[in-house]
Amino acid sequence: MDRKRGEGYRVTLDELLTKVDSKYTLVVLAARRARQLVDGAEPVIEPTASKPVTIALEELAAGKLQYVPGKAGIK
Predict the structure, then answer these.
(1) Is 7 inside a domain boundary?
(2) Does 3 map to a domain?
């Protein structure tokens, strides 16, 4: 991450995909965290945005969110 966070900072898809194993995981993780924020959870970073999905993506890019992959090949 060569760019500094601040006003106008945008998280890139490439940056986010280094944190998870697929785009699907990224969407699910961001949606779950955004729902937590809407329901009253406090952001774990100082957000530059006001929308919950963007805050969730910023948290993920900052390395503040973790996910544990489930069992592979569940049928």
Answers:
(1) no
(2) no
Phi, psi of 46 (to 5 degrees): -90, 100
Residue 69 lies in a domain: no
CA distance 56 to 28: 11
Enclosing domain of residue 49: 13-61
pLDDT tens-digit map of 13-31: 999 999 998 999 999 999 9
The pTM of the full predicted model, rounded to 2 decimals, is 0.79
What one-character DSSP code corresponds to residue 4? Answer: P
**What DSSP assignment string belongs to 55-68?**
HHHHHHHTT-----
Number of domains present in the structure of the chain: 1
* Amino acid letter, residue 17: L
